[in-house]
Amino acid sequence: MQQDQSSAPLRRVQPARRRWPWPLDLYQSAVGKKWAMAVTGVMLLGFVFAHMVGNLKVYLGPEAINHYGEWLRDIAVPALPRTVFLWLLRSGLIAAFAIHMHAAYALTRMNHRARPTSYASERDYIAANWASRTMRYTGVIVILFLFFHLADLTWGSANPDFVRGSVYHNMAASFSRVPVAAIYIVANIALAVHIFHGAWSLFASLGVSNPRLVRFRRRFAVGFAAIILLGNISFPIMVQAHVIEDHGSQPYHAAAVPTAPRPGR
Q: Which helix (H) or strand (E) holds 255?
């Protein structure tokens, strides 16, 4: 006797998931996004540290910091045209920054979908410290500050006394304005908080579970964030304290190489 299939429940057929190339396919998962955040985070941490160390040359005087700025434009010359290598570095940093932001946004959406309703009782924040709970806010502050920083000291549109190529003068002119100095100090505090949690959590994102490294990661996060904070806020503070002052410094100009006289015939 044939069974009546009219009352049998219908199964929903799930469409086959599209297969992407390996890196993109891995990125579709939460693990892949955490790895992307960790790897791009390491790149961005390296840039922030190198940027701060380079700016410390301001304490050596106008010629040292201006020469450093000119050297950045001349990297890989004559193998590459002037500023090309610098723009390649900038393009890599922009890509890392974009991937970092997208991964953070996507992970937040995934967490909200996993728990669409809010917690019934007050959350226990023993494991989640203040830095981790404010990551999205410090991230937004850092993004806004980045655009202001570029407009102030790279493009010059936010600095009325901007002189292209004169790094020392531009820093002194910018940080001599009290509101701008305050913006830099507050933004770098937010950056340090963001760096602290980012440096602390990247070990877990990369799957590092060695007990020695787990104990080390908090000391590393605190130390790294403190170095970046103290180095970066020292510039506006020292300008306001008149330790760094501009007395008519000029952009760096490479000394002309003397040419040997042509032998007479």
A: none
Q: What is the pLDDT of residues 175-189, one digit of tens each?
A: 999 999 999 999 999
Distance from first CA to last CA of the chain, Å, rounded? 117
Domain positions in the chain are 27-111+133-240
Quick one: tokens of 263? 């032998």
CA–CA dist 190, 94 (Å, integer)? 20
**pTM for the full predicted model:** 0.81
Give the CA angle between residues 23, 29, 32 to the nearest 5°.
50
**Which CATH code for domain 27-111+133-240?**
1.20.1300.10
Give Cα 45 distance to the centre of its chain: 6
Give the number of other CB atoms < 10 A from CB of residue 1: 3
29 vs 17: CA distance, rounded Å: 12
Q: For residue 141, which phi and psi values (nearest 5 degrees)?
A: -60, -45
Collapsing DSSP states into helix, strand and coil, what is residue 78?
A: coil
Up-side HSE of residue 37: CA atoms within 13 Å toward CB? 27
